[in-house]
Write a structure and sequence with these properties.
Belongs to the HMG-CoA lyase family. With 299 residues, the chain is α/β, with parallel strands linked by helices. 43% of the residues lie in helices and 15% in strands. The protein has one domain (4-291): TIM Barrel, CATH 3.20.20.
C-alpha cells in the first residue's frame, strides 16, 4: 500500500525549538525534503509572531520554497487573519487547528473548542472561495494535559462538524503522545462514520514511545496519510520531557520494511535529520541516521 508522508518538520518540528533558525535554513530544509521525494510539506504557520517567534518569517520562507507542480505546501492557520496571510503567501493548502478540549484550546488559541469550530467554518468557506484545499487537525484527540482522557465522542463530533463545513481532510493529532494502537483503531472507525468520505490523516508524537506502533496501526486500518518530522524534532510545550514528532526517516523505515511504498528516499531524509540537528545544536532523536538502513538500501 502507498502511504503519503506529510513532512511537518519545517513547522511543527521547529516551532517549539529554543534556537530560531533563519529563513534560508528553513528553505534548505524544504529543498532537501523535496529532493528526497516528499510531495506534501507543512512549511509554515501563520500565527502571532510574538507568541511563536520561530514562525515569524512565514512569508519569507514561502517566497523562497521551490515551486513544482507535484509538491503541495501547507500553511497552518488558527483564524481568518492567518488565512488571509496564508493565501497572500501562495500556499497550496491550509490546515486549521481545533483542540478537542476547552482548557487546552483556550490556553493554545484563546478560544473554546466551539469557538474554534466556528472560526473553522469561516476559514473553510473562505478557502473554498479562494480555490484552496482546507483541512482540519483535531489536536489532543488522544488525551489532554489538563483534562486527561479526551472523550472519543467529542473527537467524532468535531470531525462531523468539520465534514459539514467542507473539510477536505481530517487529521487526528496525538499532541502530547499518550495514544495507543487501540485508540487509533477506535478513533479511525468513529471518525469515518462521522465524516464519511473525508480522507483521514494522523499526526503522532513519540513522547511515550508509542508513536510508530500507532502509525502502523493506522496503516492497518487503511489510513494512507501520516504526518512526520525529519529528525524527530518538535513536540508540545505542555508535554513534559516531550521527545517530539515521530521521525520521518524512522517512519519510512517501518513502512518500507512492511512492504509499503512512499516514493521517499529514507537515507536522504536521515542525512537531512543529522544536518538539521547540527543547526539546532543537538542530535536528532531519530534512529535511522545512527543505525543505518537494512539491508543497506535506501527507500
Amino acid at each position: 500500500m502507498h502511504t503519503t508522508v506529510v513532512e511537518v518538520g519545517p513547522r511543527d518540528g521547529l516551532q517549539n525549538e529554543e534556537r530560531v533558525l533563519p529563513a534560508d535554513v528553513k528553505i534548505e530544509l524544504i529543498e532537501r525534503s523535496v529532493a528526497a521525494g516528499i510531495t506534501r510539506i507543512e512549511a509554515v504557520s501563520f500565527v502571532n509572531p510574538a507568541r511563536v517567534p520561530q514562525m515569524a518569517d512565514a512569508e519569507e520562507v514561502m517566497a523562497g520554497v521551490p515551486r513544482r507542480g507535484d509538491v503541495s505546501y501547507i500553511g497552518l492557520v488558527l483564524n481568518r487573519r492567518g488565512l488571509d496571510r496564508a493565501l497572500a503567501a501562495g500556499v497550496d493548502e491550509v490546515n486549521a487547528v481545533v483542540v478537542a478540549t476547552d482548557t487546552f484550546c483556550v490556553r493554545n488559541q484563546g478560544v473554546t473548542t466551539d469557538q474554534a469550530m466556528e472560526a473553522f467554518d469561516a476559514i473553510a468557506k473562505a478557502a473554498a472561495d479562494a480555490g484552496v484545499r482546507c483541512s482540519v487537525t483535531i489536536a489532543a484527540a488522544f488525551g489532554c494535559p489538563f483534562e486527561g482522557e479526551t472523550p472519543p465522542e467529542r473527537v467524532a463530533e468535531i470531525a462531523r462538524r468539520a465534514h459539514a463545513a467542507g473539510a477536505h481532510e481530517v487529521a487526528l493529532a496525538d499532541t502530547i503522545g499518550v495514544g495507543v494502537p487501540g485508540q487509533v483503531r477506535d478513533l479511525t472507525r468513529r471518525v469515518r462514520a462521522a465524516a464519511p468520505g473525508t480522507p483521514l490523516r494522523f499526526h503522532f508524537h513519540n513522547t511515550r514511545n508509542t508513536g510508530y506502533a500507532n502509525a502502523l496501526a493506522a496503516v492497518a486500518e487503511g489510513v494512507t496519510v501520516l504526518d512526520a518530522a525529519t529528525g524527530g524534532f518538535g513536540g508540545c510545550p505542555f508535554a513534559p520531557a516531550a521527545t517530539g514528532n515521530i521521525a520521518t526517516e524512522d517512519l519510512l523505515y517501518a513502512l518500507h520494511r512492511e512492504g509499503g511504498s512512499t516514493g521517499i528516499d529514507a537515507t536522504a531524509v536521515a542525512a537531512t535529520g543529522a544536518w538539521l540537528g547540527e543547526h539546532l545544536g543537538k542530535p536528532a532523536p531519530a534512529l535511522l541516521g545512527r543505525a543505518g538502513p537494512f539491508p543497506g538500501i535506501a527507500g
